[in-house]
Amino acid sequence: MIRALRLNMKTGLFLFAILLVFQTNAQNPSDITLEKKKPTYDYAPDFSYKELERRYNKLDKQIDIAFNERVKAFINYFTVRERNYTREMIRRQEVYLPLFEKYLKKYGLPTELKYLPIIEAGLNPKAVSGPRAVGLWQFMSPTAREQGLKIDWYIDERMDPEKSTEAACKYIKWLYGVFKDWKMTLAAYNSGIGNVKRAMRRSGNKKDFWDVYRYLPRETRSYVPQFAAIMYAMEYADEHNLFVEEQEYPIPYDIVKTNQFVYLKAFAEESGMSLEDLKKLNPGIKKGAIPASAKNFELRVPKATIEQFNERSTQILAKAEAGKTEFEKMAKNMPGSTFGREKVTYRVRRGDVLGTIAQKHKVRLTDLKSWNNIKGSMIRVGQRLTIWSGPNFYEDSGNRGRVVLNQPIPNSKTHIVQSGDTLWDISRMYNGLTIQKIKQLNNLKSDRLKPGTSLKIG
Prior knowledge:
Shape: globular
Distance between the termini: 44 Å
Low-confidence stretches: 1-11, 18-41, 393-403
């Protein structure tokens, strides 16, 4: 489960980690210093190494990470340089830490692991990293699915605090069973079990984190000291003059089970609920709607409005289901939307540019870039592009002059591939034909077509 450092502080932490690694490998690790700030109303007290060490060693912790210069440097990072970030974590902690504690206790795991999602995601259930890790516990999709989390166009349970936390606890417990050491377990959670085992082999089969340290990925070397530091910063926030004016608290809720399509906007309007609160309670609902296929879906609704819902539940649910037409129209036009569309793989040819590829497939250039994580306009010959083909975003008068759309399938039930034909083009030429059906009829393993080939289309 490879991860990058999270959220807005990600770049700062990573650069700081590089500096830290460089300096701690020098002759005198104690040379690490942080720029002193001018006294302000937001005074950051200055404590000696010994005072920080004394406090740190008094922490009630099961995960034994020794205090050293690396840990001290990250303590200063969270209590001096990034005080606003730490304050924000303090402000949010009542929403999430009790939930984490509940599941950590259920699985017999160290309580201090409740601070891991601060390093992972900044206590943001909708956090998405560069490598596409998602949620409070920053699951990559393969690991998430292995732990039983559902991920589809509508729902991503990696963003569900309850379900993702239980999945994380199961995964962490499994990792600990592999390594029998908490520091190595944390390292494996960050960079993956393979990277940690490789580092252990390169170290001469050492098993202690600090013995394996130099062989681990750079980010992982910083990950364990960061965890120790944020644990200290949260526990000793008062001593470092870290206070918040307004604490955030969880929204009390009740569960409404549904077996139908629910458009959250219509549901909220009809029931008099706050749409913002509804979304905050259900961050795993990615696109603002629950699909009809999600049987016995547990929708969290604000407890303050549950009586109003119970009184008018039939009308409210009917309105929420009737909102499907409005939702589908909106969903099709969302930036980067794949709603109601089929996935096509296109191989870039000589002379292709993104604009002509987008025009040919009747998709927006911005969406084409989004689907393929392209920032500029550079593409290379042979590059594979993912294109989600389907109902056009624009009025369609035919995608090529010679193409007649929605023809009856001919008696021959075949189509001769012409130069420039794609599976998307052919699927639109004939009534009732889809890309998937063409692939099944012709046992196609890829989207590449050779001119002159006879394809079965019925």
